Amino acid sequence: MSEGSNEEIIEELEDIKEPVKYEPMGIKQILTEMKDISELIVDLAYSAVLFNNKELAEEVHELEEEMDKLKYQITMMAMLAARDKEDAEQLVGILQLATAAENISNAADQIVEIILRKLDVHPVIASALADADEQIFRVRVEPDSLVDQKTLGDLRLHSTLGTRVIAIKRGRKWIYGPNANTIILSGDLLIIRGPEDGHERLKKIVHTLPMK
What we know:
The protein has 212 residues and is α+β, with helices and mostly antiparallel strands. The protein has helices at 3-15, 27-50, 54-81, 85-116, 123-130, 152-155, 157-161, 196-206; strands spanning 135-140, 164-170, 173-176, 189-194. It has a four-stranded antiparallel sheet, sandwiched between helices.
């Protein structure tokens, strides 16, 4: 690799706050996770600004750091896999896609700096974001909730409420793009996309305890 490429890799490593241990992963797995993060992180960033929500902003910051680690992993894989010029040329497209996804997460992290630095959000910004047909909401599943141990298919949120679970945070683990077979557990943080009235109705369902 060129001297410029080496300098870029060094800069990326310096940006990562915690030491990163190289863990062999499939390229497809890494790219899929980077794609999922890049889709989710933009929604969360705009929502953090819209609701002036520090917790959402911190979620964005954590995801941006996770993206940095994934970019490091895929860069390491490329360096180990490139045995000659032909191999390097085949890996260029993969690294370009990974870089583009990382750039999206960096931009989202810059958006939430408004919140993390406690700067005033201009009313025009909030107004523009509030006019969106669909918004992003966070709902915590209470212990012994009615939805605990139910699958998303069982709940049929999209058909009944017009809302869709786009991600679930379970402890420190993220579940991106959950499907009908994904089971909801108490303590899960659901990231929801949909209209505000659907969000309000969902909150009542999530906070409702089953009848004894």
